């Protein structure tokens, strides 16, 4: 392990760690110079259109493609029979059922061959000279089917027709965590038991950039141009599971990506037919989805039905929490689908509280709906949401202050490191102080006066608190290559991938901090699997912890090499060479050489002694570190118009502990985005299916997203407690906005309605739902 304790003071560097440096990615993107997958046009490329199932559940007897193959411009119509030599997509998560048996995974072919399992299931791919010709020919494909009954709700799936003959009751996993007997005893002895039935609604991800891909086959290699969250992992999945070829025969390339939030993390069925067609036809094949196809086929998020229970003693101390859930997997298991309602519920329902016992029992069920996968937070916001809703309702039932209950149960600074029953070990935090800071920043004490003023105007006003702590994904092995280029730039090579976060700027700040190279000279190479030897991709709020640590360790290796080289150039012993802020000097003198000049000298030298490095380049892989625990407190204040059910968020405050903050501007942007997505889920968003499994919310005409005029200005306060388990001290921030906003907004809504006798509503709380609740309460 290299020495990463380089003696730099962040405050003296304009572009160092902690400075609010504007995103360097933005000028290029704002000028329309970004390069997304659909921007690519390869010489001689053909175009593909996907034929999707219009049926939610049906036996597929035959696919008639004769007319489509004879249509003008068509080069091929690919069906399941053409792809028999390839592999299927599976979920290999090492999860076990309550009885110890393994997860019952599904095997998803690229194209349906025997059965149609949801509306949008790919059946055939038409390849033609033009996009219009491919789309026209797709209309000629005919399906011979026997319609079966469909099921869309996880709680009803056990009694529904089987999606797979070998998966009984449509249950892929009957998950159990915790000591059920001890939890039952705790509930039996409790002074109060709070119960809530909570629906965590299904979400369409709705990334700005629809999925798009181009398949190539050249020199015996498959090449896929695609927007994703990590080229290294996607390359491995395609090679190992789908194409069944050695990894060096597959290359994945990604340019700019217009959003993902978990949805573009893994392989999709469309990628194999494109690569197969490119190989068999000898020309690149391009496919770009339409928004209607995205609504049907992009993996959805959330979708849990939960019975949540909290046991408290007479003082309000937590004794145990129990979640009994149905998790909707959709028709096929995605790579991480079972994790959200199982392990991530376990790790995140604890939040920042002392909680002796946790029990989570979840049945992961198959339904005739679009597959579900990770969506910003992937079970982390949900766990916090369940706990915060339980706390609010328990406080009301017990006649206690919810703030006092939170503080009573907060993990105290002298309890760290804190071993949670979930298996997590929290390294540090300042939870009660953050809650107090949020209350002060939001003027919580003055709220009742504002409520009275709103009442005089005929409005219902409420305020809600959302304490949160989320367990990030543990950083995996991550590349931190550093390359000094001939043109005077320095390239960082990383296996994480920026799909909107601003990695280039943040990573450049870290490199500038630790090596002193000019900030404007730093470049980022991230989207080519051929350049990588490791890479965990971007997800789970771990990128800065993983890539930041990799860059720091790689920088230390550069310094070690630089001291050897500088000792030769400066004609001094290695022991006398010092390094500070981008310059190697002889101790006690003013003789030295800058790192960029030294790199150039090595590049230009043709006869160096064997002990002198020929460059300062390093290729380093950061091993890994434990997960981190970003936390904070959100306070939402809103008004409801009783006559219309319209909600206006009037104040929103967030105090956050993200550990060491590399770039406050980027962190604010991440927080804003997460908060807005939480607001969207609470107030606007819901995927709806008919009883027959038809998607009813299949366009933006039917599916609500928050807009700028739905949102207030956000007040953000930083209260950092540096993480002790990674070299940078960062905790991650990408998903935390959702974790705080879901409970804060819902608690504010319920607080506004509580005088009317309403103490719970399920998301989304649309104006119609609010209007009905208000008028039903009189």
TrEMBL record:
Transmembrane segments: none
InterPro entries per the UniProt record, alphabetical: Ald_Oxase/Xan_DH_a/b, Ald_Oxase/Xan_DH_a/b_sf, Ald_Oxase/xanthine_DH-like, AldOxase/xan_DH_MoCoBD1, AldOxase/xan_DH_MoCoBD2, AldOxase/xan_DH_Mopterin-bd_sf
Keywords per UniProt: Molybdenum, Oxidoreductase
Keyword Oxidoreductase applies: yes
Domain of life: Bacteria
Gene3D superfamilies for this protein: Aldehyde oxidase/xanthine dehydrogenase, a/b hammerhead, Aldehyde oxidase/xanthine dehydrogenase, molybdopterin binding domain
Short name of any one Pfam family annotated for the protein: MoCoBD_2
Signal peptide span: none
Domain Aldehyde oxidase/xanthine dehydrogenase a/b hammerhead: 31-149
PANTHER family: ALDEHYDE OXIDASE 1-RELATED, XANTHINE DEHYDROGENASE
Protein name, entry field: Xanthine dehydrogenase family protein molybdopterin-binding subunit
Organism the protein comes from: Sediminicoccus rosea
């Amino acid at each position: 392990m290299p020495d990463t304790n380089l003696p730099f003071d962040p405050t003296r560097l304009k572009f160092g760690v902690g400075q609010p440096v504007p995103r360097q990615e933005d000028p290029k993107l704002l000028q329309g110079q970004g390069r997304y997958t659909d921007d690519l046009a390869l010489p001689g490329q053909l175009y593909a259109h996907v034929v999707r199932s219009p049926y939610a559940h049906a036996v597929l007897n035959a696919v008639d493609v004769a007319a489509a193959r004879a249509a003008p411009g068509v080069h091929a119509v690919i069906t399941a029979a053409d792809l028999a030599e390839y592999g299927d997509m599976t979920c290999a998560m090492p999860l076990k059922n309550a009885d110890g048996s393994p997860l019952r995974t599904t095997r998803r072919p690229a194209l349906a061959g025997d059965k149609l399992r949801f509306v949008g299931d790919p059946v055939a791919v038409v390849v033609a000279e033009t996009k219009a010709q491919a789309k026209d020919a797709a209309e000629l494909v005919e399906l011979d089917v026997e319609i079966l009954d469909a099921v869309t709700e996880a709680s009803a799936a056990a009694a529904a027709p089987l999606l797979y003959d070998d998966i009984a009751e449509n249950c892929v996993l009957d998950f159990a965590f915790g000591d059920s007997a001890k939890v039952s005893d705790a509930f039996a002895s409790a002074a109060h038991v709070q119960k809530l039935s909570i629906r965590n609604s299904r979400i369409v991800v709705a990334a700005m950039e629809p999925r798009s891909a181009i398949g190539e086959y050249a020199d015996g290699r498959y090449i896929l141009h695609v927007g994703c969250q990590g080229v290294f992992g996607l390359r491995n999945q395609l090679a190992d599971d789908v194409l069944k070829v050695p990894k060096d025969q597959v290359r994945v390339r990604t340019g700019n990506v217009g959003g993902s939030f978990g949805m573009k993390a893994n392989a999709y069925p469309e990628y194999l037919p494109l690569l197969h067609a490119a190989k068999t036809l000898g020309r690149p094949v391009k496919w770009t989805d339409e928004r209607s196809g995205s609504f049907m086929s992009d993996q959805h998020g959330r979708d849990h039905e939960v019975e949540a229970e909290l046991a408290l003693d007479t003082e309000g101390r937590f004794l145990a929490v129990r979640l009994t859930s149905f998790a909707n997997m959709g028709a096929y298991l995605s790579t991480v689908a079972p994790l959200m309602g199982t392990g991530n519920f376990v790790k995140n329902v604890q939040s920042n509280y002392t909680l002796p016992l946790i029990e989570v029992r979840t049945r992961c069920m198959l339904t005739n709906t679009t597959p579900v996968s990770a969506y910003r937070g992937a079970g982390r916001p949900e766990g916090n949401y369940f706990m915060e809703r339980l706390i609010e309702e328990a406080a009301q039932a017990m006649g206690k202050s919810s703030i006092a209950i939170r503080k009573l149960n907060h993990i105290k600074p002298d309890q760290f490191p804190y071993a949670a029953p979930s298996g997590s070990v929290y390294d540090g935090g300042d939870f009660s102080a953050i809650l107090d800071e949020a209350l002060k920043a939001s003027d919580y004490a003055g709220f009742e006066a504002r409520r009275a003023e709103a009442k005089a105007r005929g409005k219902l006003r409420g305020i809600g608190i959302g304490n949160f702590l989320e367990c990030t994904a543990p950083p995996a092995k991550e590349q931190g290559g550093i390359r000094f280029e001939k043109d005077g730039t320095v390239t960082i090579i990383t296996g994480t991938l920026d799909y909107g976060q601003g990695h280039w700027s943040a990573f450049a700040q870290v490199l500038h901090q630790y090596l002193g190279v000019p900030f404007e000279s730093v470049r980022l190479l991230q989207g080519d699997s051929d350049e990588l030897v490791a890479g965990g991709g971007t997800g789970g709020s771990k990128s800065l912890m993983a890539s930041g640590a990799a860059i720091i360790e790689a920088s230390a290796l550069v310094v070690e090499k630089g001291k050897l080289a500088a000792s030769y150039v400066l004609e001094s012993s290695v022991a006398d060479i010092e390094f500070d802020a981008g310059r190697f000097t002889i101790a006690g003198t003013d003789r030295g050489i800058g790192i960029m000049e030294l790199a150039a000298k090595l590049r230009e030298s043709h006869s160096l002694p064997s002990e002198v490095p020929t460059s300062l380049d390093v290729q380093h892989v950061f091993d890994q570190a434990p997960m981190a625990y970003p936390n904070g407190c959100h306070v939402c204040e809103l008004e409801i118009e009783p006559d219309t059910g319209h909600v206006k968020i009037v104040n929103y405050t967030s105090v956050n502990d993200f550990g060491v903050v590399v770039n406050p501007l980027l962190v604010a942007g991440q927080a804003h985005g997460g908060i807005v997505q939480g607001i969207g889920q609470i107030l606007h968003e819901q995927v709806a299916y008919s009883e027959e499994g038809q998607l009813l919310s299949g366009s933006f005409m039917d599916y609500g997203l928050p807009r700028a005029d739905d949102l207030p200005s956000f007040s953000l306060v930083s209260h950092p407690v540096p993480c002790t388990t990674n070299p940078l001290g960062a905790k991650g921030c990408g998903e935390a906005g959702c974790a705080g906003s879901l409970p804060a907004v819902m608690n504010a809504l319920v607080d506004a309605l509580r005088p009317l006798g309403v103490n719970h509503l399920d998301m989304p709380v649309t104006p119609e739902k609010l209007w009905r609740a208000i008028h039903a309460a009189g």
